[in-house]
Amino acid sequence: MALSKLDNLYRQVILDHSSHPHHHGVLDESTNEIEMNNPTCGDVIQLQLHIEDGVIKDMRFDGSGCSISTASASMMTDAVIGKTEQEALVLIEQFSELVQGNETGDLDDLGDAAMLSGVAKFPARIKCATLGWKALEQGILEKQDTTVSKQLHREDKGE
C-alpha cells in the first residue's frame, strides 16, 4: 500500500527534526534546568530554559531518546521560544490533547508539532512525544534558578 503525500510529509518532518534537532545542546546561561526520563522506554531529556520577565527567551535540550521524543522536543523549542510562560502552558496542554486524539482547535501555534497528531494511534508512543513538553511544564512551574529531576511514571495515563 502506497503512503499518501501527507504520510510522507509527516515522516519526513519527523525524520528531519530527529536527525537535525533545533535548539539542541547546552545554554550558556539558564534560569531553569530540568531532567526527565521515561522509564518505560529509556528516553531521557535535559532541558535548559532562559526565562526573563515571564518570557522564554531561549532554551536547549539534550539527552537520548527515540526519533519521536527527539523530534517532538525539537518542534517544541520552535513553538515556545519567544512565548510567555502562560502561552507556553497553553501550548503544552494543547499538544497533550492532540497526541491523545482529542480535538484541540486551531493548531497553527504548535507549528510542526501539530504533525505529531498521528501519535494518538500508537498509545505507547504518547509518553515519548510528550516527554519534552512535560519537562518544559515542570521548568515553568518550578521556582526559578532550580534544577529539577523527574520521571514519567508507568501509572501516568496517556501522558
Question: How is this structure best described in words?
Answer:
- This protein is an alpha+beta fold.
- It has one domain: Sufe protein. Chain: A (Alpha-Beta Complex).
- Helix content is 38%, strand content 21%.
- It has helices at 5-19, 67-80, 85-99, 126-141; strands spanning 32-38, 43-52, 55-64, 146-151.
- Strands 3-2-1-4 form a four-stranded mixed β-sheet, covered by helices on one side.
- Strand 1 and strand 2 (43-52) form a beta hairpin.
- Helix 3 (85-99) runs antiparallel to helix 4.
- The longest helix is centred in the last third of the chain and has 16 residues, at 126-141.
- Residues 153-159 have low confidence and may be disordered.
- It comes from Vagococcus humatus.
- GO terms for molecular function: iron ion binding; iron-sulfur cluster binding.
- One of its GO terms (biological process) is iron-sulfur cluster assembly.
Summarize the helices and strands and which ones pair or pack.
Elements: H1 5-19, E1 32-38, E2 43-52, E3 55-64, H2 67-80, H3 85-99, H4 126-141, E4 146-151
Parallel strand pairs: 1-4
Antiparallel strand pairs: 1-2, 2-3
